[in-house]
């Protein structure tokens, strides 16, 4: 009997020790994102001069999904981040980064914001970060109406076939911007020409299946790698100025939706998609949307 009790106590002690060892082998990690417009911190109630030629715009949305986050260690190995399942911003290996706060012109968003990925990694020294802009295929074509948070936002979902809007970054002409040629009380010229420029990144050409597709010709998920990134000191800037640097926000290709809806036939997407890190109709990608920046 004493032997049995001793063995039982030893078993409990072994389990507790194993748990402590496992905890010691990992470390908490926070990967911070910063919404930026050039060197300015993003705000829903601000106006920004964006595009080529530059026009003054107000943002109306700024959200995107990231997945498969990993750090790069000192030996150059990719080490996955195990996300904390917080039942709000993170689910499985997907996180929602949300810079809008339903203020200013961002009326379609939510009051709550999220600027970080939270999880654990094996203990070690890390020098880079890698992640995917987008939702993995196995989660991309679920029903947002019944999906867990943060995949339950219907404002970030197209339909069964197309799946989620991996990024939603929208602009409207700044209401305070008036051309010197506009008469008092008249609508500014660029307001008459445009209703805004919306950017909805997502999969296109999805085929097969009565509801859920079996494949997508254009997955439009972008793998982002940033070197010289120290998670203790650095953040990841998501820069709307860089994203639309070579896009004319005051023009729209005839017979196409407003702005860029990821359609490969829409010329308004050319600069945006390449700056997201996605090749475009034979033109190579040149990711500029994300960069390393100091933590706040």
UniProtKB/TrEMBL annotation:
Q: Which UniProt keywords apply?
A: Signal
Give the signal peptide, or none: 1-18
Asked if the keyword Signal belongs to this entry, the reply reads: yes
Q: Does the keyword Cell division apply?
A: no
This protein is called Copper-binding protein MbnP-like domain-containing protein
The segment(s) forming the Copper-binding protein MbnP-like domain are 26-261
Xref: Pfam families: MbnP
Provenance organism: Leptolyngbya boryana NIES-2135
